[in-house]
Amino acid sequence: MRNPRKTPQAEHLTWMKENGYSIADMDNFWKENYDTNLLVKNLTDNGYSWRDMNISVVQKLPTQKERDIEYFAKKAEEEEAKRLAELSEQEKKQYYEEHFEEIMCQKIDTKMSLTEEELHRLLEYELYEEREYGDDGRWSRGVASVIELCGRHFMLYWQKGLTEMQEDSFYDQPYEVEKVQYEKTIIVKEWWEKGRKEEASDYVFVHTSEN
After folding, report:
1. Which residues pair with 154 in a beta bridge?
2. Domain coordinates of the chain in residue numbers?
3. What is the pTM of this model?
């Protein structure tokens, strides 16, 4: 460790005189900053004092401790605010998971768009899915799923990937539906051998149905 400088620099003495500070005052300011200012601590431990500093550093010594205390207090406050904010986010996530069905119903009722992640999660509440009419695409198949949330039912149309590389995709928002039961007449067409009137069960035929 070096030997500390014993006498202040000339510009130090000029500034001290102008501001009414003695050498003892400056020694006290330096000592007071030892516990609050890491730079002062390191300099002191290595044999330096305020006498070795340039004038700009010396001029800050009388109020440096207050500024450091204020800085650390503000930093601690910011860290606490951040901790509380992170805790709040965790609580929000927990509430979201615990009330997922209610939140989804509320978003649908208020015409808020569900995110793609939320639409995908709705399939966990699927009662059944029905293939849409038409041929499969090269990469996907149109599917209509009935979703049950909070005892209510919603229709969701989506595209089901047909390959391992093709992900499911969602282009439409769900809407509420209800089950309706009614009688429906179906016209059936069968191809029989011309001129034969026996029961169709005696022959091979092609069967098509139309709604």
Report:
1. 147, 176
2. 10-82, 101-177
3. 0.50
Dihedral angle of Cα 8, 10, 11, 12, to the nearest 10 degrees: 20
Yes or no: say if 140 and 161 are a contact pair by the CB < 8 Å rule.
yes
Q: How many CB atoms lie within 10 A of CB 35?
A: 11
| Cα–Cα dist 96/77, whole Å | 28
Cα–Cα dist 211/208, whole Å? 10
Largest CA distance in the chain: 130
In angstroms, the CA 67 to CA 70 distance is 5
Tens digits of per-residue pLDDT, 156-177? Answer: 999 888 777 778 889 999 999 9
